[in-house]
Please model this.
Amino acid sequence: MPISDLSGAELIGTSLSFLLTLMTLSYFLGDNLLFRLAAHLFVGAAAGYAGAVAWSGVLRPRLVAPLLSGGAARDPLILVPVLLAVLMLFKLSPSLARYGNISMGFLVGVGAAVAVGGAVTGTLLPQMQATMDLSGARTTEILAGAPASVIAVERVFDGVVILLGTIATLVYFHFGARPGPVTSAARPALIAPVAAAGQVFIAITFGAMFAGAMAASVAILGDRLQFLWSFLDQVLRVITLPQGAP
Amino acid sequence: MADLRCRMCGKANPDTRQECEFCGARLSPLNVRQGGDSAPGGIRQGSSGQLQEEESQGWLARLREQAAKDQKEENDEEDEGENEEPAPDWLNRLRLYDEREPAAPAVEDPSGPEPDWLSRIPTRASQEGTGPAEPFAETPGQAENSSREAEEGDWLSRLHKKMELEESRPESEPAPPFAPESRRRIESLLEGETVPLPEPPPETPDWLASIREKVAAQPEPEPFSEIPDWLISSRAPDSIPTGTVEAPVAGVPAWLAGAGQPAENDGTSEAAASPADLETTPGQEPAAPRPVSQPPEPASEKARDVVPGAMPDWLAGMRPQELARLGEGDSDLVDEHAEWSGPLAGMRGILRAEPVIALPQKPNVARTRLEVSDLQNARAELLRGLVEDEIRQIPARARKRVWLPLERWLVSLALIVAVLAPIVLGTATLPRPDTIAPETLAVGDLINQLPPSAPVLVAFEYDPASIGELDLAGEAVVDHLMVRGARLVTLSTRPAGAGLALRLFEPLAIANNYLYGENYVHLGFVAGEGAGLSAMARNLPATAPADFAGNPAWSQPALGGIDSLADFALVVVISATPEGVRQWLEQAKPAAGPTPFVAVISAGAEPLVRPYYEGSPSQLAGLIAGVFGAGGYEQLTERPGEALARWDAYGYGVLAASVILLLGLVLHGAAGALSRNQASRPS
Model:
């Protein structure tokens, strides 16, 4: 949208975005006051926005409004979150912080139970099953139209690589060692080569993650540079636009 | 019979009484006092307070003076005393006993200087020896025996009478000298000569008889040279005063009385430590001279020869500190503690064991020389070097020249130029993706297969920091969904994600003529992250009863026929992190049934999310990762958007980053090899 079509608030917001983007990019010159100021503003704005959303989307409609409208008489269970929330406020005082442990215990307990249960049924068991499955469904999908022999070889190769990669990576995290007669403690002879192979798989994984993070950073850099260029281009056009021209 | 004078009323009482018959005060105390007065509670008759005080200053000296002044009178009395007053029975028994027993060997008086603090002990003992001292451990029964024996010792009474006469005599009147016989007897007493012991009388108590039998059965005491070393070492040179056994005092053993003799007596006092001296009493005939290593000198000559000398260093080190201070300071503060148990019971001024045992003192640590091996010495040198390095003052270095972060500037400049140049120039030099990834194709196929007005749930699980990447793919997918006419329901488990959803939806809704409430609804923020997702999967209307604006959501047409996640035809999760996708798959996927899930993720999250797509059975039906996936999807839907518009900028930026990485790898590798080469080159 051209800045000439923006309202006053939108124009101010866009201008602030331009300045804050420049302040953030000033970090390439080194750590400086402008970068810190932009970072603090970003953190503060994000926290304030999150608080506002939590109030308007959760606390007010689902806790305060029912209490004010007599919802406690209809549903006394609404007092339970009220009590837990009040106990949580005791955490602000060091002398009364122990009373907030009830709320914290409730939150941590529920969160841990949900996370562990979901991890076992949603990640651990399916991934174990996928590791043991050498059918290579995706390989067949990728190599659709290829000869059957090629698909079979590729399927076996994928299965072996996945199996070896999984085992080697798990073995790498076996840190048991035995002290040698002369040298210091070292991995057992059977564990060491497998762990080395696992280290290679881990390095490849970290390399892939770094490449993805770098690609994402380049994409975000392109977005910000395009924003800056667009803003400057439109400002220059407004400035250089002759008076009375459409 | 001697009388006891009450200390309270001053009246005389028979010494057989324990309490004063006039005032009822106890005459003999239960315990001997700690002070210098060693007399019992009652004062013996004939000894006034003045006499007692004078006696405490050396009654033996006065006895000699008195003997010199009143010799004639003393001769008469001595003759009468020898003829008319026979020796007491117990003294006669002691003489007989001593005659049977060989004389105990006298111990040579060790030569050498005597310390002051040791010499004061016998001196004070002699000063306190004026009154009859009783041993501390003496029981009441023994006290009666002692008084009975003292009653028999009339010679002491005579001595007291002489002293009283001396006191009543004017100072100017010369005292009559001792008769020769008396002088000889007194000198023999002072020299400690033993007397034969008499046979025990029939009325001797059993306990005393048993003691005598034991003493008689004991072998002859070994000479001093065979005394155990510990005993020798415990006796400092010249620490034991010389002298002979003094006149018997009631209840005071002869060896204790000998301890109170002045140093002017001869050196035979060591024999007082031998058991034979226990039976040595005054008034007896001198026994055979005891064997000594050196011939004893006359008492007067030896007394003159004894000169206090300096204390040896080893002995000074062993001396208790308290006593050392006393010796250096006020001599009146000498320890007057009287031993109350053991063989030294009743003695005063002895070396006390308590300061050595109970009081804190310098530990007696054996000083040994460490045997240090070469390895230990080398380690000690290393440690010393480390410590010296720590305390060594390092001169301030010259201020290092500040280098500009040229490397950072070069990298930043190269990236900015590589990304910005295609944007400014508006070029499209890089080829567009003509091969679409299978996971991206899967997403397009799923959306293309959706029936008209199919409900689709879109979750925005990212923050504003990721909009530069995820908005590209999100816009492509949402635009495709709007093209397909799907009813869209949006939400987020992140507070910022709810606002980002509106930011992305509104321009596309305007472009595709989508109406809020009829074609799409924004449920906003769902609190609780994983727990909120789990609750939403079980009961979606209860978890999100209102939309982002606070209006009732489930009465709007866009949510018609939807009661749970299973009612949606597709679930799209747009997440910047692997955790966002994983939470949806772990908490919501089991409750969604056959509803397919697809993910639009950041390129950095792809390695950790792809296993959910590659698995068999796969938990993700499709996957779009980063700008590359967004460009391919726009290419697939033939609706070019922002992803393809930034394709060159993205491509050149990634190329520049790759080149910089390779250059950095080469340069740093070369620098490392060069430095290793220089380090290995001999200087």
About this structure: Chain B touches chain A through 67 residues (CB under 8 Å).
